[in-house]
C-alpha cells in the first residue's frame, strides 16, 4: 500500500487495484485535488523522468493496491526497455488527455451531470466519502453549490445522507439521470 505521501526515494508505482487521489500543495498553503488515478496508471513517472521537482500527495481512495518498483530497477532496466518506454508514453498521454477532458467538461456541463458521473466513477460500495471542499474545487464549483446539488440528488432519491456520508440510494436512478444529461 502506498503511504499518504511520497518518500524521499524516487520509486515508481503501478496501480493494481482501486483508486488513488493526487493532491498538490500550493505556495499559499492551500491544497488542490488534481486527479483520480485507477488500475493501470503509474504514480511517480514524472519523477522518473526528472520533470517533477515537487512531489504530490497521494492517498488511497478505498481498498487499493500498488506494485512498487524501486528506482534502481527502472534506472538499470526499464529506462532501456522500449516496451516500457512505450507504456510510459501512453500512460502520460492518457493522463494528459484525462486532465484536459476533465477541464473541458467543467466548461461544457452543469454541475449536476458532472457530479453524477463523479459519484458513479468513485463511489466505494455505494458510499460517497469525500472531502467536499476539495471535491468542489475539483469539480470547479463553490462548496455551497456542491452541497445544494447534493441536496437535490437526495430529494430525487438518487442518494441519501447517513450520518456524515452520502450513500447511493438507487443505482438505477443514478444511471437514468446520467443518461438524461448525455454525459
From TrEMBL:
Coiled-coil spans in chain: none
Cyclic nucleotide-binding domain mapped to chain residues: 1-95
Keyword Protein transport set for record: no
TM regions (residue ranges): none
UniProt keyword Mitochondrion present: no
Keywords: Activator
InterPro entries: cNMP-bd_dom, cNMP-bd_dom_sf, RmlC-like_jellyroll, WH_DNA-bd_sf
SUPFAM superfamilies in UniProt: cAMP-binding domain-like, Winged helix' DNA-binding domain
UniProt-recorded name of the protein: HTH-type transcriptional regulator ArcR
